[in-house]
Every structure is written in C-alpha cells, then in structure tokens.
Predict the 3D structure of the following.
Amino acid sequence: MLRQERDSKGYTQRDVADALDWSPSKLIRIEKGTVGISVTDLKALLLHYDITERERVDQLVDMVKAGKKPAWWHQYRDVYPQQFINFIGLESSAIRIRQFQGLIVPGTLQTPEYAAAIMRAYGSQESRIERGVEVRMRRREELLRSGGPELSYIIDESALLRQVGDSEVMVGQVRQLMELSAYKQMHIQVMPFSAGPSSAMVGSFIVLELSEEQDDYAMMLETPDGAVLVDEPNEQTARYSKFFTELRDKALSEDDTQVFLDELLGRLGEDG
C-alpha cells in the first residue's frame, strides 16, 4: 500500500528518502516488507503522502501493530550475533549480491556436509552446527526463489584446493558449484593463481546492492577480528563495489570456471 501511495504521487524512492532524511535502503526494505515499520515512521510517510484522514490513519496503524511477526532469520539469534541477523535482513532485500571469498566456499553455496565441517573446524558445538547449517540452506533457498537477486561470486582457487572434510565432502561441494551455475541468476567465477596479485584483493567481502539508486550499497567485511557490517552506503561501500568489478575482470569467465571445476572434480575423484 505504501509503495502504491508513493507511485500515485509520482515520487521516487529517492524523493521520499531525501524528504524524510532517510537512506533509500530504509524505504526500500519497508516497501518490500523485509523489515517492519514503526508507528512513528508510518505516520511520517502518511503525512508526506497527504494521508491525514483519522479513520484511514488509525486503520494503517492497527495493521502495523498487528504485523509485528518477526522474519524467519530472527529464530537464529541464539546461533548468530545480532550483526549477522541484521545482515541477513539486508541480504533478503538486495537486488544484487556480489561476494569475493578467498578462504572458503561462500556460505550460501556450501553443501550441508561442507558447512558442518567448516563449523566443526571452528570449534562450534554440535547443537549449533545443525542450526548453522539450517541457516545457510535457508539463505540459499530464499536467494534462489523466483524474483530473487542477481548473485555473483568470485572464489579464489585456494579456497577450492583447501581440504574441508574428506574427499567425498570436497567432491560434493565442487559438484554443487557446477549445478548452481545453471541458475540464470547465479554467476560463479574462479580467481586462478595464474591471475596474479591485484590491488583489489583486500580480503573477503560481500557487497549488497539495495536498489537501482546510484551507490546504494551495504556490505560485510571479513577481518581478523570478525565480520564487520556496514549497513549504510558510503565511500567505503562504493569502493568495494569497484574492487569486485576489478576482481571479476581478472577472474576466469563463467564458461572457463566450469572447465576448471570439471577438471578439479576429476582430480578429486582420482585422489579419492
């Protein structure tokens, strides 16, 4: 309804965000239903849209109060810190997701067996491992749904050569990467050792493009002290988006990546 009201006024999301001193991503997440809206923010929007009839306002306020059901990811707050829960919310509303991973296969591309082996190596308790695997699988399921975001991944060759679990786990993981590449919205590329160094190789990161507005990004950075979420667009998020473009240009093409994975699958089968 809020999106329809905005369209009827001829406002862009940027127009409304600027008028209310919000970020465009906030309005986008509200309109997509990814996050709830407070009564205060609702009344601000309604006033901006010239909706002041008492009965209509009260009806919409009642809808907000009745619609406080938490999103699916909130049930995993016992497994992950609030920062990562917030990241999943942003991820679910993104229109494009770009990830460079230099250490392991990206979480949303992992098989259950690979994911469990990774978490076990990190010292996670078995009870948390089961739920952590659930989160990874649910994230992938949601991202691959009809109308989901465009997904682009660059995986360093070292991440694919690093043994995680036994050979059967590795074979299953490489095979899954090949299968996922068949999805139209999925783009997987390998950064080969032969590509050499690049100034864009600044560590593993995920850039979320939240709208068609210029430089409307959020991102997650992996650091030695843990992941860092940047949930509002700034110069840093724009810079990392350019880093991804530079890395994509140096990586194997999607077709050559399939050849690489097929050859790697053969080698893993021989080792097994």
About this structure: The mean pLDDT is 91.
